[in-house]
Hints:
Elements: H1 3-10, E1 15-17, E2 20-24, E3 48-53, H2 69-78, E4 83-86, E5 89-92, E6 95-100, E7 106-111, H3 125-136, E8 154-157, E9 160-164, H4 172-177, E10 198-204, E11 208-213, E12 224-229, H5 233-242, E13 247-248, H6 253-256, E14 264-267, E15 273-280, H7 290-299, H8 302-310, E16 315-316, H9 339-349, E17 353-358, H10 365-378, E18 382-387, H11 397-400, E19 405-411, H12 415-422, H13 438-449, H14 453-470, E20 473-480, E21 482-485, E22 494-495, E23 498-499
Parallel strand pairs: 3-12, 3-13, 17-18
Antiparallel strand pairs: 1-2, 2-6, 4-5, 6-7, 7-9, 8-9, 10-11, 11-12, 13-21, 14-21, 15-19, 15-20, 16-20, 22-23
Helix pairs in contact: 7-9, 13-14
Amino acid sequence: MDRRGFLRLIAVTGAVTGAGLTLGACATEDGGGHGAGAGSGSNGEGGTVRVAAMVSPGDTLDPAAATSPGTWVGIVAVYDSLVVLLDNEPVPQLAESITSNDEADVWTVRLRPGATFSDGSPVTADDALASLVYTSASPMAGSFLAPLDADASRAVDEHTLELHLSAPRADFVEAVLAPQSAVFKGGDPQTGVGSGPFVLESGSAEDGWVFSPNPHHPGVGIDRLEVRSIPDPDARARAVVSGDVDYANDLPVTAARTVTDPARITEGGPADSKALGLILNTRVAPFDDENVRTAFKLLVDRESLVGTVLGQGAVVGEDVLGKGISNYPEDLSGVTRDVARARTLLEDAGVDELTLVTSDVVPGLNDAAELLVTQAREAGLTLTLDRRDPAAYFADIPGLMKLPLFSIYWVNRSTATALPFTTGTAGGFNLDGFGADARWDRRLADAAAITDDAERQAAVSELAVEVSERGGQLIWGYQPFLNGTTDAAGDVPSSQSAPFFGSRPD
């Protein structure tokens, strides 16, 4: 999506001007800037909404460290952000306007008036800046905010932030702020004080959370929000069918077929989809050898995996995120299976057996792993499966990053946004280790700094082709999220794969 398209999709008062790039947002008459009722995903009649989702053990409501969709349900309910991703489009929340200088290396954020924390105190520029600085220090989430120069940035006044970047970033709003700009009082999420529609009443990752309305928020048409940790996707489907929950996040195709009245299935489009695949870890043997990475990509029958595991609505991937989203690189070509060449490359490298660590953190990964055992055998490779607990799979990401081969999924996002997050030395989700050097970092930075839309797209496409051909991300398929919902929950939008019960600007 180009800059002008982004501003049109926000559908507010933004414009591209000769003085730089500008985003504007409108607020409600009372200055709250929040929507309510059906526009927020509820039926607008109050009551309790119970959500079943995956919650990783040990997760807290800290957006800088959260690893599971169930946790994010609570985070977006408690904390507003400067800008939030809704169905993969950036939407202003606490920001009233965001404007850049001509070079796109200084961005001015004006907070909407009247924003209030759950303790009744006003949301200030100091709070917002402290929150960004806190998140930027996170080993994982901080990669989104890597361009921020925290020392040079400042609060100009109570409602104005001046954010300085270490390098120009023309896509700063959608690629940097939208994924990670939650604001907490004093910049400390441990206080639990945010400006979202709910406050935490009780609970934990192990037991689930209960949220009650924020008395200083106009509300979103829900009197009580409960998040229940149900790691097994089939159990989530049974829970929504039986009426034990009102919304079940991320169901497998087979379970989705069992969802009947009064529940129903909602299916996201490309912007609300997940990419399923494998990590071929370039940091360790044997995938530090590009020929072995090529061999593994050649032995995988992607069409078979998609058709057998994912079913209708799913599409084959080309090892780069962003398929189906505007500005997906046209230069990418699909990988044609070539078992004979794969066998030759593996024999030349002396690789005849590997262990694939897998887990159903999303439905389909384990089923795909089973099929991969057979596909690998056709190329002379013995693949042993190590199945792990989905609830704890992401609890030790550094441990995962030491493994040669493991299953993974990504939340789909635009290619331009995904590349700095999944490659390079600052990529917090660079699981395969590709591009972890100064040369690649420079190329990423140079592409992001280009203010001309067509030129930036060409640079991004060039990087994407190299990632697809040489990198260790193997994205074999994309599938829309299948969620079970009832009238109590309504049609719920998605924010980075999690159901969104947060503030909606009018």
